[in-house]
Amino acid sequence: SRSSRAGARALARSVDTAARLGMAFRRRFTAVAGLALCLSRGSPAQGAAPDSHECGEGHWDAASEACVCNPGWRYAGLTDTLNFLQKTCTQFACESDTRCQQLLHIPDARCPIESWNCYCGWRYAFGASFSGFRSSDGEAKCMGVMYTFAMFATQLLHDSLKQMWKAFLVVAALLFPFGKKRMTCDHHRATLWSTLSLTMRGSCHNAVCVTERGYSLMRFLDDFAWSVYALDLMVWTYSLAIVIYLEVLVLWSIALWMFVVLVLLVGCLCGCCLFVGEGGGGAHCDGCCGGPSCDGPCGGGEAPQPGEAAGADAIYLGGPTPVDPFWGSWGYGGGMDLSGGGTCDCSCGFSRRRACTPLAWVIYLCPMMPENAWGGLLGYMVGTHVATPPEREYLGGSRVVDFLGCGWRRRTDLHGHADWRATVYHFLTREPHAEGAPGPGQGRHPGRRGQQAQLLSTSESGFSVGAARVFPIQRSFDLQTDRCFPSSFHDYSSNFCWICQNGNNQWDMWMSCRHIFCAECSSQMLVRGMPCPLCRMASSSILRGVGPRKGPHTI
């Protein structure tokens, strides 16, 4: 059908353009063609006419001193370099599928591109020394290995793109009840959906999208985040497939021309040697090849230095990001370095920046999996939705709900990052000129300035601190029962807060990540709408327990 041949026409136009340019080469390198002819079958007497088989499917015309092709045949194309330079008739010009099947006696033979060889599949591509099967009577010819691969890949890509969208729509429909509970700001990350969302709603400062109250358009889209992710992945997959196809087409054309230039240079060098050996004069051959370099500025903003008072954007959006051994930083809802630094990876080789930029850009825009499945209709049913009433709020204890929280994608944190801890501490204490962070037992609690004034409401179901809700449980935390993060639980069991490095009688466990901080540091972070400094994920539900106890599950 016409649609099935659309992709192949792009390849045909590229090769035909190369062939037209090659005609100019052929006129300028007639001597090189004769030289290649000599190297391939020996030097004939000057003025002798080639044999009939040397014209392929044609005959020699002495008057024009050129091969005249038989009906249905034409001169060899650029990819058949020697025959192209000799101007022999080895290219069959197919007209239709029926004609190919009749002349070749192959039921599945097709004519995907007019004036090309017939496409007969892999079985016949290896005939005649990989140049393609030819009928015994010389009426038609099949494509060789190279063009068979090109047509096969084009047809496979076309068929895949024609059917793949159906599978993505089915997956998007199945994921309809699953949404996400926003724990991190994704408006600054480079994805197709984030770019569109940023265009619609504008920029986001200090991660206000995580802590804003009420049900907005953004919250509505979060309720269908997994379906949106499936559709975003569909668009990205189609873009990636098309870019890869075009990249391969361009690189194939470059390789083809490099091969032709190589043949011409070899012929030219051999001609120089031949002329010198026969005393027939001299010749000079030059060749120069070069490609653009991968130079240019890279990078971005600077991360706050340890001991400095970091700005709000540096705390909410900057700083380091944990990297999971399997999921990378994707487990935290992002695939980028939030520190603001950047490096150039210029390892693509020839014409690196021009050839690799489109593919690298599409890969850079790869969609990111939502950070959890705690939103949408299912999240409202299990008590994790942002609009869940306080009396129905999920407080832990279910392995299924914890699995939907996707904590298994976030198995590392920033517990050992001392410089980042110092930055967080100075941000909370507002001490821009402090020299370093306090040592263990020497820190001042950052939450002793107006903490109680920030409590918005109090009820039997807990009380609000900032945009989060705190639920007192009047007990100690347990490593297995509460599924606390191991590194954070180690600090808790030692009565040692990671931020202020002091002890406390009250401790908060953030439900989104299971990290534990002293109640005063935790309250200050909640008032400021900060994400967890250890995993960079925000939490709207907090369990407030008492100090640690010694027991079998204490680290």
Summarize this, please?
This protein is an alpha+beta fold and 555 residues long. 40% of the residues lie in helices and 7% in strands.
Q: Could you characterize what this model shows?
A:
- A hairpin with a 5-residue loop joins strand 8 and strand 9.
- With 555 residues, the chain is an alpha+beta fold.
- The radius of gyration is 35 Å and the shape is elongated.
Low-confidence stretches: 24-53, 276-309, 335-353, 431-444, 447-460
**Portion in beta strands:** 5-15%
Helix/strand class: alpha+beta
Shape: elongated
- The radius of gyration is 35 Å
Secondary structure tally: strands: 10
Mean of all residue-level pLDDT scores: 74
- For the terminal residues, how far apart are their CA atoms? 69 Å
Largest sheet: 6 strands, mixed
The proportion of residues forming helix, as a percent range, comes to 25-40%
Helix count, DSSP H or I runs of 4 or more residues: 18
Biggest sheet, spatial arrangement of strands? 5-6-7-10-8-9
Query: In sequence order, what are the helices and strands, one letter per element?
Result: HHEEEHEHHHHHHHHHHHHHEEEHEEHE
